[in-house]
Amino acid sequence: MPPLFPPSSPTLSPQRQGQRLGPRFERLQTILASDESGLSLRADPSSIAPERALVFEIAGSIGDFYQLVTRIQGLEFLADEETTFDPDEDFFEVDTRKGRQGQPRKDKPVGGRLYLAMPDVRALRELLRLWDIWQSERDLPQSGGSECGRRA
């Protein structure tokens, strides 16, 4: 499987992504464990439930990401939008200019997309399960409940 990021953008380790995103996944786990009833009020995946909206910021192409996400049953795609992000310590374009090769370009926006999805409770649990697998640096499942592919 090709990497999810273009060659000009760095790929973050599971540890760094855990530092960046771990608190959000922990909050989701806490909410699901303590009060599923609040989420089940909007159990109809065709209804708009702002408290369940997920927005993923994706550096690079959305193609691979979209292909993986569509395999999670109950994660309904709503919209995506092309955008740019300011570079930071983790996401930046790699300089290819003479004398600066391999250095971060802090002067160039990072191309990406926003991906909006409306998951049901089952999809939220599946996202948490896949996050736990990825954080433990194991390969994501190829078949079964969700076919998500190998680590990039």
Question: Overview of this structure, please?
Answer:
This protein has 152 residues and is α+β, with helices and mostly antiparallel strands. It has one domain (14-93, 105-135). The protein is 32% helix and 20% strand. It has helices at residues 14-34, 36-40, 63-69, 121-135; strands at 54-59, 75-85, 93-94, 104-105, 110-119. The chain has a three-stranded antiparallel β-sheet. It has a two-stranded antiparallel ribbon with strand order 3-4. The longest helix has 21 residues, at 14-34. The protein starts with 13 loop residues before the first helix and ends in a 17-residue tail after the last helix. The model is unreliable at 1-7 and 143-152 (pLDDT under 50).
Short account of what is shown:
With 152 residues, the protein is α+β, with helices and mostly antiparallel strands. 32% of the residues lie in helices and 20% in strands.
